[in-house]
Amino acid sequence: MLNTLMATLLRWYYRYTNAKVWKGHTSTSPYSTLQASTAAGQIALRMYAAASGADKPLVVYFHGGGWVIGDLDTHHPFCQKLNEKTGCTVISVDYRLAPKHPFPAAQDDAMAATQWIAQHIAELGPSNGQIVLAGDSAGAHLAITTCLEAPGLVRDKIVGKIAIYPVTDHYTIPRSSYEEKGKGYALTSSLMQWFWDCYLGSKDKLPQRALPLRSDNIHTLPPTLVVTAENDPLRDEGTAYADKLAAANIALLYRHYPNAEHGFACGQGPNADFLSLMDEIDSWITALY
Fold first, then answer.
1. Residue 235 and residue 181 in contact, taking contact as beta carbons nearer than 8 Å
2. Using an 8 Å Cβ cutoff, are 15 and 70 in contact?
3. How big is the chain by its Cα radius of gyration, in Å?
4. Which 3 state secondary structure label does DSSP give 202?
5. In whole angstroms, what is the distance from residue 59 CA to residue 152 CA?
6. CA dist., res. 34 & res. 45, Å (int)
7. H or E stretch including 190?
8. CA 272 – CA 23 distance, rounded (Å)
9. Fewest C-beta atoms under 10 Å: which of 23, 221, 230, 252?
């Protein structure tokens, strides 16, 4: 009951703060809401169609928020800017949230939505029939786990992955950034630990599916853009993930933002680091086609 109450309050606060920092910076670009009918149930999608996207991949975006907070609205400004900057059709996925829906609900929804999009891609907004999976924080975690688990025909359509300050491992693995950057920022170590506890529930054993850094299938992943922020408890596991990709000879672009904190991409408005990241993403996606 206490976790549910705290989740409700944090969702309200997250929506409020995101709306505040993006006030005056959103556009009137059109979007539409879709319903993906999957074995996991109905999953809401928000599509930002791009008239110029016919020769570009479609970006499937998973919002951050620790699998507990965040939704289509909190990440609407970011997805809107991503659509406008890259000229790609962007589809944002409204997956189920913990603690009401703990693991593996979010991962199951991410996979089901990606499969549905892959099956219907010719009927959706303009694209070249290929997919880039993307996300921030817990959403980056979902992009990674979906790539790792995608069945053959779906995986063949995934040509790239964007992981913005990703969650890649559990907090029980000691990392310096949890200590050095654990207080005084939007994401604290204690909050991240609470997110994990809400997501995994009362499981005694950590499920391998939820720990992409420990996967034996890293070598199967597509070209990847990994982004980390210096002032972030997740800094070190993001760097470790980039190192593991490099060791597996995955085509990798790694960008570290030395003055930024967790949330700079989606939760702080169009600051200088955000604008730099948009340029990086645009250039990286262009190189894919």
1. yes
2. no
3. 17
4. coil
5. 19
6. 5
7. helix 189-200
8. 17
9. 23
How far, in Å, are 56, 68, 109, 181, 223 from residue 96 at the CA level? 29, 9, 7, 29, 27
- What single letter denotes the amino acid at residue 131? I
214 burial via Cβ count (<10 Å: 0-12, 13-18, 19+): middle
Is residue 88 a contact partner of residue 127, using CB atoms and an 8 Å limit?
yes
Element (H, E) at 176: helix 176-180
Torsion of CA 134, 259, 252, 236, to 10 degrees: -90
Task: Indicate the length of the chain as a whole number.
Answer: 289
**DSSP assigned state of 214:** G
Can you give the pLDDT of all 289 residues of the chain as single tens digits? 788 999 999 999 999 999 999 999 988 778 999 999 988 789 999 999 999 999 999 999 999 999 999 999 999 999 999 999 999 999 999 999 999 999 999 999 999 999 999 999 999 999 999 999 999 999 999 999 999 999 999 999 999 999 999 999 999 999 999 999 999 999 999 999 999 999 998 667 899 999 999 999 999 999 999 999 999 999 999 999 999 999 999 999 999 999 999 999 999 999 999 999 999 999 999 999 8
Beta bridge partners of residue 261, listed in sequence order: 231
**Separation between Cα atoms, residue 131 and residue 146, nearest integer Å:** 12
Q: Among candidates 98, 118, 128, 110, which has minimal Cα distance to 7?
A: 98
Please give the model's pTM, rounded to 2 decimal places: 0.97
Which residue is listed with tokens 């890293």? 218
CB atoms within 10 A of CB 27: 10
